[in-house]
Amino acid sequence: MTDSKNYEEFLHQYGLKNTRPRKRVLEILFGQEELLTAEEIYQELLEAGETVNVSTVYRVLELFTEKKLVEKTFLPETRKYAFSLRMPGHVHYLICIRCHKKVDLSGCPLSEYERKVAANTGFDIIGHRLELYGLCKECRDKDAAGGTEQHE
Amino acid sequence: MTDSKNYEEFLHQYGLKNTRPRKRVLEILFGQEELLTAEEIYQELLEAGETVNVSTVYRVLELFTEKKLVEKTFLPETRKYAFSLRMPGHVHYLICIRCHKKVDLSGCPLSEYERKVAANTGFDIIGHRLELYGLCKECRDKDAAGGTEQHE
DNA sequence: GTCGTTGCAAACGGTTTGCAAATCA
DNA sequence: TGATTTGCAAACCGTTTGCAACGAC
């Protein structure tokens, strides 16, 4: 899954031409579990020695988003968009407020709720957005270590 | 609730000085059920004959947000922030994608879900954000009228 | 060869900021 | 009067766009 050929196939499956910037952006998204902003992706490309333009990165990400290949998420704290590969079933996230790690949650408790709300309000519900915020285990442990001066 | 004196009391209760811009912004927020962007609030002020500056509107809204007097919501479609009076219990919204009307939903289906997720992931869940998107009855009716060429 | 894609640089637009003048308590 | 708040204009910054050159197929 990590060699260039597979990214080409991947792009092809989504009806997209194989270009150098697209493969590289895809490569970064595959290698990263967390949300990445356009700027971060651009920086990683530069560090990898790529000569690519910011606007190209934005255009590629926009294209990927349109084709449902990636998901675009707004991060309120920094007022930026972040991107991540869109895997089937990844609809709900748990986001650590400290390290921004994103955890996928399978299963959705809202379908029944949506039905109820639709009935009560007369709305056609066409979608929802659910984010849970919290501290992941690692960050919580660091907190505990620092706060109470436990060993290390 | 509509005369100037009450806005002054309101501001005072939140520990804020009474200034003309603040009272006027508050007045607009009280008179509007829907989400308003900073720009929209600014425009309403101009139309009402106020001589106020955009940056003042932003500063007032930021202050109100800090003091939990209003709630700041990001509208993904237009990439703008919108504001509304923060009333106790208004935690979940139903938002019409067409006219941006906001409907408050009482009751939250997520507490139990949060507990389950916390147990499964090891996160401390400290909050969530839930938005349902859809078409309100009015907009849906307009759609139907336009789309199928019904009377009118 | 043709059309889509990229690089470049400039624009865009919502929001923020520095500073001096005005205003509130 | 002394601390805050406002107006103004300019900056900011993430993102978008027009256009000419480039590259995929």
Automatic annotation (TrEMBL), chains A, B:
Keyword line: DNA-binding, Repressor, Transcription, Transcription regulation, Zinc
The record's InterPro entries line, in alphabetical order, gives: FUR (IPR002481), Fur_C (IPR043135), WH-like_DNA-bd_sf (IPR036388), WH_DNA-bd_sf (IPR036390)
Q: Which domain of life is it from?
A: Bacteria
SUPFAM superfamilies in UniProt: Winged helix' DNA-binding domain
Q: Which Gene3D superfamilies match?
A: 3.30.1490.190, Winged helix-like DNA-binding domain superfamily/Winged helix DNA-binding domain
What CDD domains does the entry give? Fur_like
Q: Which Pfam families match?
A: FUR
Task: Report the family membership.
Answer: Belongs to the Fur family.
Q: What is this protein called?
A: Transcriptional repressor
